[in-house]
Each structure stands twice: as C-alpha cells, then as structure tokens.
Amino acid sequence: MGISDATFYAWRKKYGGISPSELKHMRQLEEENLRLKKLVANLSLDKAMLQDVLTKKI
C-alpha cells in the first residue's frame, strides 16, 4: 500500500525543507489550531442553544 504521486509531492512541498525541530513545532501548532477550532465549534453550539432558549422564553 503506497501513496499517490500527488500526495508525495504535496507532502514534499510542505515539509521538504523543514528541520526536525521546525517540523515538531509545526505539528504542535497544527494540534493547537485543531483544539481551538473544536473549542470554537463547541462554544458556537452552546451560544446557539442559549439563544434558542432565550427566544422561547420571550
């Protein structure tokens, strides 16, 4: 099982000139970004639910 040529070249373009420490830092930033996106999504759902409750009480 391999990867497609397009995937390989996209990966090489993205990570080819990066040192291991830079790669580690980039992965940490990507993980933090994903965590924050999930947090925003959850807060958006909470806000929508609260607004729905408020409109039903009025």
UniProtKB/TrEMBL annotation:
<dbReference type="InterPro" id="IPR052546">
    <property type="entry name" value="Transposase_8_domain"/>
</dbReference>
<comment type="similarity">
    <text>Belongs to the transposase 8 family.</text>
</comment>
<dbReference type="InterPro" id="IPR009057">
    <property type="entry name" value="Homeodomain-like_sf"/>
</dbReference>
<dbReference type="GO" id="GO:0003677">
    <property type="term" value="F:DNA binding"/>
</dbReference>
<protein>
    <recommendedName>
        <fullName>Transposase</fullName>
    </recommendedName>
</protein>
<dbReference type="GO" id="GO:0006313">
    <property type="term" value="P:DNA transposition"/>
</dbReference>
<dbReference type="GO" id="GO:0004803">
    <property type="term" value="F:transposase activity"/>
</dbReference>
<dbReference type="Pfam" id="PF01527">
    <property type="entry name" value="HTH_Tnp_1"/>
</dbReference>
<dbReference type="InterPro" id="IPR002514">
    <property type="entry name" value="Transposase_8"/>
</dbReference>
